[in-house]
Amino acid sequence: MLSEGKKRSFLGKLSRKIGDALMGRAAVDEDFLEELEEILITSDIGMETTMKIVDILRDEIRSNKLSDPEDIKQSLSQIITRLIDKDADHTLCKDIPLVILMIGINGGGKTTSIGKIAYKLKNEGKTVMLAAADTFRAAAAEQLCIWGDRVGINVVKHGEGSDPSAVIYDAIQSAKAKNIDVLICDTAGRLQNKKNLMDELNKMNKVIGREFPEAARENLLVLDATTGKNAVSQVKEFGDVTDITGIILTKLDGTAKGGIVITIADEFDMPVKFIGVGEGLEDLKEFDPAEFAEGITY
Ligand code: GDP
After folding, report:
1. CB 216 within 8 A of CB 99
2. Can you tell me the distance from the alpha carbon of 284 to that of 298, in angstroms, rounded to the nearest whole number?
3. Which residues bind GTP (predicted)?
4. I need a labelling partner for 33 at 20 to 30 A (CA). Which of 65, 67, 178, 226 fits?
5. CA distances, 70 to each of 17, 23, 74, 123, 162 (Å)
6. Residues lining ligand 1, Cβ inside 6 A
7. Rounded to the nearest 5°, which phi and psi values hold at 128?
8. Over the stretch 37-93, which tens digit does the pLDDT of each residue have?
9. Which of 184-198, 203-217, 227-241 reaches the highest mean pLDDT?
């Protein structure tokens, strides 16, 4: 569970606005629905998703003759849950061995999320190793090593500019020799050079498939939730270059409005698996659609 403080910071604003819009109304009418529409749109929920939510709520208000604010909140919470759940598996693959490729642009919170996931898995009793396959920036491997030290796990790295697939190859040999349960690989997210990125990710995927065919796979896309619509376009862009099995939305403790989670969950067939709610090792939360929707409406 999130601490109340962290929950309030990214869901509370939206929840309060919805509560205010409902308060003191003689009737739940089109006026309310219009106000709700504006609240949702200004909370980073895209136009299409907002219209979907408001249209379903209007129907439910009419057909169930809802007027009590609590009933309306409950109905809204259920609508949002259905929209973002989609019966998808929101949990990280439990099979071992598992190879996770972490994908996303610089600054999005990829390295931090790797540290958090490694910490979580280690606490669950799994053995974890990291591969510094973002060889584009020297600082990337250094930062990953800092997280490796913090969590107390090994990091496989080569020099700056070396072939990322060679790092993955070595990491796989080492992970197999040491019977590692989960290998988490950092990658360089150079979206401005899509062809290179695609080639690089293809090559990494091929090396993993060839050298570690028994391993289960996750390709997790890390997105900064404070970037709003940019995060949505990154899902499209990265989805074009490789298969994404899940999304991590970071920085939901900050200025992010929370609604971006709903838009991404509604628009794409990629389950949100984790949300980042701070810079510390424990600030990663498994995504629970019902809990999230409830946090918005209550
Ligand atoms: P990378 O370039 O994608 O590897 O990004 P980093 O992991 O280095 O993160 C970039 C910045 O975002 C760092 O200052 C992190 O501390 C910060 N950061 C990452 N995740 C979160 C989060 O969930 N909440 C907050 N507040 N900051 C985060």
Report:
1. yes
2. 22
3. 104-111, 186-190, 250-253
4. 226
5. 14, 10, 6, 39, 58
6. 104, 106-112, 143, 250-251, 253-254, 276-279, 283
7. -130, 145
8. 999 998 889 999 999 999 999 999 999 999 888 899 999 999 999 999 988 899 999
9. 203-217
